[in-house]
Specification:
The chain is mostly helical. The chain is built from 5 helices and no strands. It is elongated and about 105 Å long.
Length: about 190
């Protein structure tokens, strides 16, 4: 189950991450980590289901063996033979489920180790500052294109900031005046 996820992660990282874009690589690694955690959860659910099935099958085996012992106490060879057939089937199912459970536990351990490795890689990636704090090269190119077309960056738009602060000031003045008018009316009535 997880091998396909890991292969897709490696292909995704190789195909879509240019060497100069560490932010995108970190984002893809984070996305893969989230997907891997979901896979671990699904594997844990499947493991729990197998454990429940094994417990139920063991109970059925015990019941079949008990019935076989009871059938042997009465002189009915056909009933003894049928009970033994059921016990054999349940015994085989128990063996298969035990093998399945062991494989699922091994697979879960491998997957959890891979998830921890990805988590450590992402943590190291973020701590090393490789995720970048400024805009990516693609973002820079997009801003340059917008500025060439007459647009402005929000962080460098001084006129826009002044206009915004003037509007905020006007709204504040209007709110203060409305409150003052309301208080005058209230005091005038009393």
């Amino acid at each position: 189950m997880f091998e396909g996820l890991k292969a897709r992660l490696e292909k995704l990282l190789a195909d879509h991450t240019p060497p100069g874009d560490p932010r995108q690589r970190a984002a893809l690694l984070h996305s893969a980590l989230v997907e891997a955690k979901v896979a671990v959860s699904a594997m844990q659910d499947a493991l729990a289901a197998t454990e429940r099935n094994l417990a139920a099958e063991r109970k059925q085996l015990d019941d079949a063996e008990r019935r076989g012992r009871l059938a042997s106490q009465i002189p009915d060879p056909e009933t003894v033979q049928i009970a033994e057939q059921f016990a054999t089937r349940h015994r085989e199912r128990v063996q298969v489920l035990e093998k399945k459970l062991a494989v699922q536990r091994d697979e879960l351990a491998l997957t959890q180790r891979d998830v921890e490795q990805m988590r450590n890689e992402l943590r190291h990636f973020r701590q090393s500052g490789a995720s970048g704090s400024g805009p990516t090269p693609n973002q820079e190119a997009a801003w340059r294109d917008l500025e060439t077309a007459g647009g402005v960056r929000p962080d460098t738009d001084v006129e826009g900031e002044l206009l915004k602060s003037q509007l905020d000031r006007q709204q504040l003045d209007a709110a203060v005046q409305a409150q003052l008018d309301h208080l005058k009316k209230k005091l005038g009535k009393e």
